[in-house]
Amino acid sequence: MSKKLILLGEGDGDCAALPVLAKRIITEKAGWDALRFDRRAPLRIGGVGKLVRDNCRRWIDYLRFALHRGDVGAVLVVLDGDDKCYPPGSSSPFCAAVAAKDLVSQARSLAQAGSAYSLAVVFACMEYESWLIAGVSSLAGKALRDGRPGVRPNTQPPPNNLEREKRGAKQWLAEHMQTGYNEPLDQAPLTEMVDFGLIRTRVEMRSFRRLEHAIEQLIDANRSGFHVATPLAE
Asked: What is the mean pLDDT of residues 73-100?
């Protein structure tokens, strides 16, 4: 029997696009027998730097608020991986795996993740828009669903490693869209249109493959009745 999947995203554009993204992947994975969508919008929770302050108080509060929606089987969290350091204020460079494992560890200890419901934390590296850029040739020359012009014709993605470049994916899209890039307005329709196959062909796009695997894990957990909290701390 399916249970609710609750989505948590970083910004307004992410929260508009995440339902589109997750629905496409769940459909591809034939996972609707295990998960169903909560009708309410995803929760906007901000970046990881704010979430982990004060012993992750804000992070745990958001999780508990999400669980109040009732009949929750799984929570999927997608954040940008463009912070300069982690933990905040330290001299250690940001590592998506370390940050994700920290969030999951806190959720296991303080919010019953992995026992009362399943949880997956994914960082888009370096930004959600990096995934769109990886598949941008499938968007080139196509109008958005409201008729506005989208990505300029013949646009191709840069050859460099999109997961290691400094923050700037939003600016890149703004320069290559005919009317600029409006994150809250454009992120969802671009997600609806982009060819996932092109993203998968980019060898470096590990964060997108991580997202797909995380959703598979949530589907399998709900089917089996054994909750997961991923990624696991080593």
From this structure: 96
Here the tokens at position 205 are 């796009």
The token duo for 44 is: 């906007």
Name the pairing type of β-strands 118-124 and 3-9. unpaired
Helix, strand, coil percentages, rounded to 5, for the chain: 45, 15, 40
Total count of residues recorded for the chain: 234
Phi first, then psi, for residue 231 (nearest 5°) are: -80, 155
Reading the block at residue 213, the tokens are 């695997």
Is the peptide bond prior to 126 cis by the omega test (within 30 degrees of 0)? Answer: yes
176-205 pLDDT, tens digit per residue, is 999 999 999 999 999 999 999 999 999 999
The verdict on 103 and 138 lying in the same domain is no
* Residue 9 contacts residue 41 (beta carbons within 8 Å): no
Give the domain extent around 185. 128-200
Total count of domains within the chain: 2
Largest CA distance in the chain: 50
Q: 220 and 35 in contact (C-beta within 8 Å)?
A: no
Q: Please state the pTM of the whole predicted model.
A: 0.96
* Nearest-angstrom CA–CA distance, 77 and 59: 11
Report the CATH number at residue 52: 3.40.50
